[in-house]
């Protein structure tokens, strides 16, 4: 895998995170909107898939036990997401 692929996965995660925040805000005021809830759940699953792919190739995205640490793509492997 290469930095271009790593950047693309990070971009996808950022886009999905934006959608999830917006849907979360919407659902705060429209909790009975089933279609919005289904969209939210779909994006949650997509985010999990992309994050899993990222972490398998480039290392953990989160700390405090939220992400597994794997060899050889562990904590000390770079570049970090914010260094790209």
Automatic annotation (TrEMBL):
<keyword id="KW-0946">Virion</keyword>
<keyword id="KW-0167">Capsid protein</keyword>
<dbReference type="Pfam" id="PF12652">
    <property type="entry name" value="CotJB"/>
</dbReference>
<protein>
    <submittedName>
        <fullName>Spore coat protein CotJB</fullName>
    </submittedName>
</protein>
<feature type="domain" description="Protein CotJB">
    <location>
        <begin position="8"/>
        <end position="83"/>
    </location>
</feature>
<dbReference type="InterPro" id="IPR016571">
    <property type="entry name" value="Spore_coat_assembly_CotJB"/>
</dbReference>
<dbReference type="InterPro" id="IPR024207">
    <property type="entry name" value="CotJB_dom"/>
</dbReference>
């Amino acid at each position: 895998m290469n930095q271009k692929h790593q950047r693309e996965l990070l971009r996808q995660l950022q886009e999905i995170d934006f959608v999830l925040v917006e849907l979360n805000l919407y659902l705060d005021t429209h909790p009975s909107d089933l279609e919005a809830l289904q969209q939210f759940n779909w994006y949650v699953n997509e985010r999990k898939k992309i994050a899993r792919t990222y972490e398998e190739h480039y290392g953990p995205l989160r700390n405090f036990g939220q992400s597994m640490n794997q060899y050889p793509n562990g904590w000390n492997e770079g570049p970090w997401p914010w260094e790209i």
